[in-house]
Design brief:
It contains 7 helices and 19 strands. By secondary structure, it is α/β, with parallel strands linked by helices. Bound molecules: zinc ion. Residues 30, 32, 85, 106 line the site of zinc ion.
Length: 318
């Protein structure tokens, strides 16, 4: 049903799946930078279409509602289901000759406060991400992590310092902003984050109070900047800034985070090890192919009796 030609490909529908270079026809699972390209035509969810066009300008898109059927070719039907990773993120279900393939894209099963809840989609073949596919990546419940983060922020503010949340422009920032809503901090957002929050609002997500951050005007505020902007003027001119990362890699402490940070908290928009295994079990998949993650994850699945391989092995196999 699918091949791996440097990227995932459905030959019978002539559809590329999250390809990393421009193609004639592609499925875009969500609008994170490593997944978007200017293809001749793409299939996306409505929310992803909105975010994608905010980032790239007008595109030739087939927008699908959740669960809406779309025929790629005679006998090849696709549907989208929420993936729970960021707003609009989608799983792709393909039905062909009575067999069902699901591509999870980046996903998270536990509830998000800004992304649509993700179902487990029953299937025969599952192609899944496994970003956190090592057993020690088990994330503590958010009900424990958020109060610790809030306590940290309050402590820094009381010391007259500036907490600087390092959060990706799309997804992480909006989720954190929403998670901190009830604590009524003065929240100042770097301009790209601010404009993406506006896009989320246009898609129906509501937020508490926030403002756009301006250099030198952040005393007493919690500042949000993208990780690559930790040396920007907003941060340099903040009073005694302390950077804080909220990411799954924080399970390994500050050293595990792929960018410099002073503090770190384990909050992720990806499935952890247990959720990855849970998806495999509940989907009933007889074959599993892994992408984007630790190579060893497929071995953990094999140990529990699942036929699992890295997707790369599926070169030109029908
Ligand atoms: Zn992503």
């Amino acid at each position: 049903m699918f091949q791996y030609r440097g990227d995932l490909y459905l030959p019978d529908g002539d559809l590329w799946i999250d390809p990393h270079e421009p193609k004639r026809f592609a499925f875009i699972s969500h609008a994170h930078g490593d997944h978007i390209e200017r293809h001749e035509q793409s299939i996306t969810s409505y929310a992803t279409a909105r975010i994608l066009e905010h980032r790239l300008g007008p595109q030739n898109l087939i927008r699908l509602e959740w669960g809406e059927e779309h025929e790629l070719a005679p006998g090849v039907v696709v549907r989208l289901h929420p993936a729970g990773h960021i707003l609009g993120s989608a799983q792709l279900e393909v039905v062909q000759r009575g067999r069902r393939l699901v591509y999870s894209g980046d996903f998270r099963l536990k509830p998000s406060v800004t992304a649509e809840p993700a179902p487990v989609v029953p299937c025969d073949i599952l192609v899944m991400e496994c970003t956190y596919g090592r057993p020690h990546y088990r994330f503590p419940p958010r009900e424990e992590v958020i109060p610790r983060l809030v306590e940290e922020i309050r402590g820094l503010l009381e010391e007259g310092r500036t907490p600087v949340m390092l959060a990706y422009t799309l997804g992480r920032s909006q989720e954190l902003l929403k998670l901190l809503e009830s604590y009524e901090f003065d929240i100042a957002l770097a301009p790209p984050i601010h404009s993406m929050v506006r896009v989320y609002e246009s898609l129906g997500v509501t937020f508490g109070k926030y403002r756009q951050a301006r250099p030198g005007q952040t005393d007493g505020a919690v500042v949000f900047v993208p990780p690559h902007a930790s040396k920007s003027r907003i941060v340099k001119r903040a009073k005694d800034p302390v950077t804080i990362a909220a990411t799954g890699w924080a399970v390994d402490g500050e050293k595990g985070v792929p960018y410099p940070t002073d503090r770190s908290f384990p909050l992720s928009d990806h499935a952890d090890f247990d959720e990855l295994k849970e998806y495999v079990e509940r989907s009933g998949a007889r074959e599993v192919y892994t992408v984007h993650g630790f190579d060893e994850f497929h071995k953990h699945l094999r140990d529990s009796g699942v036929r699992a391989h890295p997707a790369e092995v599926r070169v030109a196999v029908r």
